[in-house]
Amino acid sequence: MERSYDIAKEIHDQLIKTAEAIPVFDSEFDPQIRVADERFGDFQANGTLPFAKKKQLNPRDLAKTLIDSLPENKEWEVSIAGPGFINFKLARTCLYQWLKAFSHREQIEAALATKEPKRVTLDFSSPNTAKQMHVGHIRSTIIGESLSRLLKLNGHQVTKDNHLGDWGTQFGILLYAIKREKIDLNNLGDQPIARLENLYRIGNQWIKENKQALKTAREELVKLQGGDEENLRLWQKIRDLSMESFEEVYDLLGVSFDHAHGESFYRDQVDSIYQSLESHGICQEDNGALVVFHPEHKRFAKQPFIIRKSDGASNYATTDLATLSYRSKEWRSEQIIYVTDGRQRDHFEQLFLTSRKWFEAEARKIPVLSHVWFGTILGEDNKAIKTRDGQPIKLVDLLDEAIRRATQMVLEKNPELSPEEIRRRACAIGLGAVKYADLSQDRTLDYVFSWEKLLAMQGNTAPYLQYAVARVHSIFRKLNTSPDELIEKAGLPQTEAERKLARKLIFFPTAIKQATQELKPHFLCTYLFELATDFSSFYNQDKVMVPEVEVQGIRLLLCQTTQTYLEIGLEMLGIETLTEM
RNA sequence: GCACCCGUAGCUCAAUUGGAUAGAGUGCCUGGCUACGGACCAGGAGGUUGGGGGUUCGACUCCCUCCGGGUGUGCCA
Known about the structure:
Layout: H1 7-20, E1 33-35, E2 43-45, H2 48-54, H3 59-69, E3 76-81, E4 85-90, H4 92-101, H5 105-112, E5 119-123, H6 138-153, E6 157-161, H7 170-180, H8 192-209, H9 211-225, H10 229-253, H11 270-279, E7 284-286, E8 289-292, E9 305-308, H12 316-330, E10 335-341, H13 345-361, E11 368-374, E12 377-378, H14 395-413, H15 419-439, E13 447-448, H16 451-454, H17 462-479, H18 483-488, H19 496-505, H20 508-518, H21 522-541, H22 549-572
Parallel strand pairs: 5-6, 5-10, 10-11, 12-13
Antiparallel strand pairs: 1-2, 2-4, 3-4, 7-8, 8-9
Helix pairs in contact: 2-3, 4-19, 7-8, 7-9, 8-9, 9-10, 14-15, 17-21, 17-22, 19-21, 19-22, 20-21, 21-22
The structure holds one RNA strand.
């Protein structure tokens, strides 16, 4: 029989099939296969308990009936425990076959690729132009990139779109300040974005103090939105400068996009949005603004979704509607995922409600809409992060500091390396640490920014995982020959540590599935850390280079498979691996 | 006011969505390279899951209530 990649699913299917032939079971029965506590087995089926409850049956008897009907099987031992759990303990031969069948990348990729690929648009990072990226942007950028990799690994077609904030009210103020100060955008010095940020701050101060200044700034915005050539040219230059500064960060982080349309891309479509929504009676005038209410909703019956401000200008609700429509129409997106701060949850809930009504009215099929929100990075005062002078920590500064600290550690171990090699390793380690620190906790939780937390290199961290990978490479280097031939002669796993590691490896598909379904990379992090831990324990206990070919073979197979999974897993987190550290 | 999120070991976090005796890291204590690399490994101490009540075979998870922290709530994104 061919070894199935997802053993949990294999057990699930087997139980369903068996239950179908037993009269007391019906279609409501869900086996609920879960990874079992190590004390009880490898997988467990919890499903008989809730089913027995619903049918007023004895759960232990029900479980017994079910396992008595299971066909003869050499793959796993089955037993009943406690109130009616069914435990499955995999035979060593089963683990062995699985390892042999799924130790290489191509095998894994083929096994994970879905038969129903979807076109998914991933909207993430999305910084505002004319501003520097600060630590707050790290979450959307890193989570988004990780999700795109996970979705692709599962066989989906992903389009990554950096939805820049490049068309807001801020440009009126900025253009006003640029003109008043007679600034030459081609001559802003080596920190052009910092200059622009400063200009904006000054401009903002002026308009608060002076009514005439406020009026002029508004006029600049109207001129820009009206297509004024001079203002458009300045705006474009600001956008270009901003993109350059973003690219610097994205290069460091290994993040890329297919598009960076930004809000400005949709500026000519806002009128048709108003018309369409008005013609379908979805929106209404209220206090001079065009708004959408949702009477069926407890909160949004009263809290409006403003799609046109009372001064006639569009806002991000308008461009988000246009963007959604565009992605559905032009890219034929079947799902759109937005990765943003949790404070925007109301906005997206309203956007989704409005879009569903709109698409229904136009008889268009609406994509699946997912708001992947994350918690805020806080300062010591438990408020959204700010440094002492009121400016958030710049993202490049965080990344530079991470690289600096990693450089010290690399130098300590290998002072003789070339500067390029030190830099390469320090980037992988330092940036990996930062990414992992963020990705490894549930994204919905806020956390207090701390250098100590983000730059930790011991324990449950990226360097620990990278170290495990480097150790496997080290073993293979010592081997001095391709392991494949030796692996051919592998015997069954024998020792405690071998079995424990093999057992952990078979849970990889479960971890990937969970992280992808929930759009939560931390599930994968937890798994990878456990895998690396079991591997570390294994190579400390069981020497790989031993004369017995069967023993050496299985240990090499375990090393090879562990390496493959750690490398794929880290790649899904956007973290680089090294062959030596 | 209304709505939402959060509260788990000294600290930072998990807990397979209602499953078995709540697990890791860090810090603290003890031990381990003449070994394939010590960013490591083995072990120990550390808990009334904010408090109280309820639902049930079973609750960190669901419901009610109270306490504490945070966010959103009409013209920023």
